[in-house]
Design goal:
16 strands, disordered N terminus, alpha+beta, 371 residues, 9-stranded mixed β-sheet, globular, 13 helices
């Protein structure tokens, strides 16, 4: 279904706004690819993945006479006690940091939410800038729920491999070399390897105490992303036994390490370090510019950025590991929310921060977290 809203005027140019419920949207995906960011959560393929978990999707785009210049993909789900909630991860997306396009997008999102009976909008921008100011100007409020990582480590892999290694900690370099000399073999995986990956991920989840999606979720994702070669699976083995595995999404100029699983065995052979190095080499050969390790502790990230120093002893295990790979600590915007019901919005503006931290809200928010 394609609906066209009244045109928006921007200087001498006429912009048109369209709302789409199309499951596949090549024009939108092509626009995202041109932006060169890791906007994978905004592509129509991701909407198709989330459909398996009960999400619907709509897309709002703004275009000039030639092409799309901005837009947002909204994932929609009915949440008990809250009704329909819209979620925009890594968006909206628009050309350059254009305040007029950003303002128009937020206006149209609010209008669409009311028209579609979406009671609340949760927006987690891709990066800070004009869009965060625009959200606040339109009545959105900060939301202390982390729906997707708000701090990460990003490696620039455009340099020579020796230079990439040189930026890593000495311990990380040694572990990579040991992995290569102590029998760890790494390779690209196929769909048939997904059960082994899922078993390794489940073992990691039990050790660290987090939940994971079922195997069919990853198989569904593979079926959607593999035709465009934008999902990769990498396996580390010792004597033919899968020891560690991770799946990545590669899009634009970035490859993102989405999830990694490790059996806990052969730690002295360093399969995880060998696997990351294999992934870096593969991504560099394919022409990618950045390797996003997808998520570290925001508190630790803020401390490191503010102090300019790294105290490894104070970091949790996953954060410490990713920092040792030598990338740049990057802090991303937190989520913003807006309720179309004035009473609810007023209530949230007064006590929302305290309410959002309750166990009930945090449990409900788990449905929004990306996987």
């Amino acid at each position: 279904m394609q609906l066209t809203a009244p045109p928006i005027q921007q200087a001498a140019n006429q912009l048109t706004t369209a709302i789409s419920s199309l499951e596949s949207d090549p024009a939108w995906d092509a626009f995202l690819a041109q932006q060169n960011g890791n906007h994978h959560l905004q592509c129509s393929q991701w909407a198709a993945v989330k459909k398996l978990n009960g999400w619907k999707s709509k897309r709002i785009t703004i275009a000039n006479s030639e092409s799309i210049v901005g837009g947002a993909q909204i994932l929609i789900r009915n949440i008990r006690y809250f009704g329909n909630i819209g979620y925009i991860p890594k968006g909206p997306v628009y050309q350059q940091d254009n305040p007029q396009i950003a303002d128009s997008l937020i206006q149209q999102l609010k209008k669409m939410a009311k028209a579609e009976r979406i009671n609340g909008l949760i927006v987690q921008p891709f990066e800070p800038g004009i869009i965060t100011e625009t959200l606040l100007n339109h009545g959105f409020r900060n939301c202390p729920i982390e729906t997707s990582p708000t701090a990460t480590v990003i490696l620039d892999i455009q340099n020579e491999l020796d230079d990439i290694l040189a930026k890593m900690s000495k311990g990380m370099r040694n572990k990579i070399r040991r992995g290569q000399t102590r029998g760890i073999q790494c390779r690209q995986g196929e769909k048939a390897d997904l059960p082994a990956f899922h078993q390794l991920l489940a073992q990691t989840a039990r050790r660290r105490g987090f939940s994971i999606f079922d195997l069919d979720y990853f198989e569904h994702m593979w079926d959607i992303f593999s035709p465009t070669d934008s999902m990769q699976l990498f396996i580390a083995e010792y004597q033919g036994e899968p020891v560690a595995a991770q799946f990545c999404i590669n899009r634009g100029n970035t490859i993102i390490a989405k999830q990694i699983g490790w059996s806990g065995a052969h730690s002295k052979r360093h399969p995880n370090e060998a696997l990351d190095w294999f992934t870096i080499q593969w991504a560099k050969q394919q022409g990618y510019a950045f390797y996003d390790l997808e998520g570290i502790s925001r508190l630790d990230a803020e401390t490191m950025v503010q102090s300019g120093e790294i105290d490894y002893s104070s970091l949790d295990g996953p954060t410490q590991y990713k920092i040792r790979l030598g990338g740049n600590v990057t802090i991303l915007p937190t989520a913003f929310c807006f309720f179309t019901n004035p009473l609810l919005h007023s209530l949230y503006s007064r006590i929302g921060s305290r309410l959002a931290r309750t166990q009930f809200i945090q449990k409900a928010a788990g449905r929004f977290r990306t996987g």
